[in-house]
Amino acid sequence: MQGVFTYLIDNLGVKDVQFEELISLDADTLRQQSPVYGVVFLFKYPIGEKPSETPKDGSFDFEAAENLFFAAQTIQNACGTQALLSVLLNKEDQVEIGPQLREFKEFTGAFPSDLRGEALSNSETIRDVHNSFARSSPFVDEQQRLATEEDDVYHFIAYTSINGTLYELDGLQPAPISHGSCNFDEFPDKVIPVLQRRIGRYPAHEIRFNLLAMVRDLRLRAREVGDQDWLYREEQKRTGWQWENALRRHNFVGFVGEVMKGVVGAKLSEGDGAYDEWLKAAEAKTKARIEERKKKGEGEESIEA
Predict the structure, then answer these.
(1) How many domains does the chain have?
(2) 155 an active-site residue?
């Protein structure tokens, strides 16, 4: 996901910014990535949960929308893009967001949050870049698919420090959520307890969370300190991200179909019931994997909220 988000904002014209996945939820780990402009948090969204008059943590700041960028989420499957834009469009004084996003922010500056959300979903530039990173699927139209109670629904939200306050920016909520005073330098220390409290509201067996930090391009930091090994690792990481993003766009159904034809043909040619035995063994392995996943509490599929 860090590679997807990094190249997504790259394609939107953002300069010298990348995403780093955090594997440890503590302030020191986050502070090591400084400067940290904000974080994007992925979590399982409870089916049927509706926005309430009072958030479970923090407090709604309805007046803040006049002084920061906050957009309501109006379409499905775009919460990741919306979360990262919630950070970027509030960091114009620290990040070069590029002419396209700057024009979009200026155009929507006087809009209420619902119209900002509509403008975001109707932006041809943002939509085209977002769709260019969508997984290729010949079977499911992700723009039209609706979640059911059998699906695991995941949602992205953003946390960042704006005007001396730590804000949670969630397009499914009616307003930004304030978590108290927080300047830029205090962000790692202030946001981690908020995230820990949020995770603490889930059952102990729920571990499907992901945290991405929006940070300054680490290649720039490596060049500044003259660490060539670090720079090489970062360049290799970018190469890997490009490969992964290319795989996301590719439709492998035709390739898989031809492989299956070849395997089945080989088994049939062996005769003596080899095909039937092979099929029974495959069915048994599939059932065993399904049972194992059920024991671990894993869903069979997931979609974004």
Answers:
(1) 2
(2) yes
Identify whether residues 280 and 190 lie together within a single domain: no
Is 63 inside a domain boundary? Answer: yes
Range of the domain at 274: 256-304
User: End-to-end distance of the chain based on CA atoms, in angstroms?
Assistant: 16
Q: Which of 130, 155, 179, 182 is catalytic?
A: 155
26 backbone dihedrals φ, ψ, rounded to 5°: -145, 155
302, β-bridge pairs: 152
Residue 262 confidence (pLDDT) above 90: no
Q: Is 0.90 topped by the overall pTM?
A: no
Q: Does 51 share its domain with 123?
A: yes
The Cα-based distances of 5 to 49, 139, 161, 244, 245 in angstroms read 27, 25, 20, 12, 10
Q: Does residue 302 register a pLDDT over 80?
A: no
Residue 275 or residue 89, greater confidence: 89
Whether 79 is a known active-site residue: answer yes
Q: Which of 33-42, 149-158, 208-217, 247-256 has the lowest mean pLDDT?
A: 247-256
Query: And the tokens for 1?
Result: 């996901």
Residue spans of beta strands (DSSP E) within 163-282: 165-169, 177-181, 210-216
